[in-house]
Amino acid sequence: MESTTAADPMISLRGVGKRYPDGTVAVADLSLDVPAGELLCLVGPSGCGKTTTMKMINRLVEPTSGHILVAGEDVARTDPVRLRRRIGYVIQQIGLFPHLTVHANVGTVPRMLGWDRARIRARVDAMLDLVGLDPATMGRRYPHELSGGQQQRVGVARALAADPPVLLMDEPFSAIDPIARDRLQAEFLRLQREIRKTVVFVTHDLDEAIRLGDRIAVFRQGGHLEQIDPPASSAARPPTSSPASPVPTGRCGGCR
Ligand code: ADP
Predict the structure, then answer these.
(1) Predicted confidence (pLDDT) at residue 246 exceeds the cutoff of 50
(2) Under a CB-based contact definition with an 8 Å cutoff, are residues 160 and 153 in contact?
């Protein structure tokens, strides 16, 4: 482990590239820093390399060039299982275990870490509370007994259970109906103000990026970084305040 200071980014991509075996260059040469406690949204058209970028951070995809550091440590030299225990991962299709209760789902990583039962119970209850689910009633249910929005909350609770410093979120709220999505976004913002994780959040919804992101990274094909700015600046500003804005409305032009 390399030494870090408070000023070092929590996540650092240095000249990162990914060429898939079929020759597709998903990401050509990407350099990007995410400071600790920042929520960075990645937006851009379908196929521009957002998901590949995210999956290289927790080594679900291995880069073919460059380096990725998490808390100063080169992920290529970190055991993937150990790495993923420090990086919560929330995806659109949730990935809850259907045969396990909500309680058991949220307790997955703490169980793997060998926590004792009382500590797991207390942590799971706290996490369910945090995401707005009543531990007593919801903890005993199975995923199919929950709404889509509730399942997504369980996914967030599970990702936070072992208190990882980093969260990767890949279109976590996209499959949820607009009203529930709006509530989830608001609650996630409230939550993030409390827990201040370093979050990389992929979305095709620019409104969502503007609402949630401390900064927005706009990608174009090949994982090229078009711009990276706070939402109030040019990337996300509507045309009335920024005639030169490449994004003409609150929606991401080329996005899915
Ligand atoms: P995004 O998340 O922005 O939609 P992806 O990172 O999923 O983009 O994909 C970037 C590019 O890499 C696309 O052209 C996609 O088709 C390609 N790609 C993704 N996964 C694979 C794979 N396993 N094998 C080959 N090409 C892939």
Answers:
(1) no
(2) no
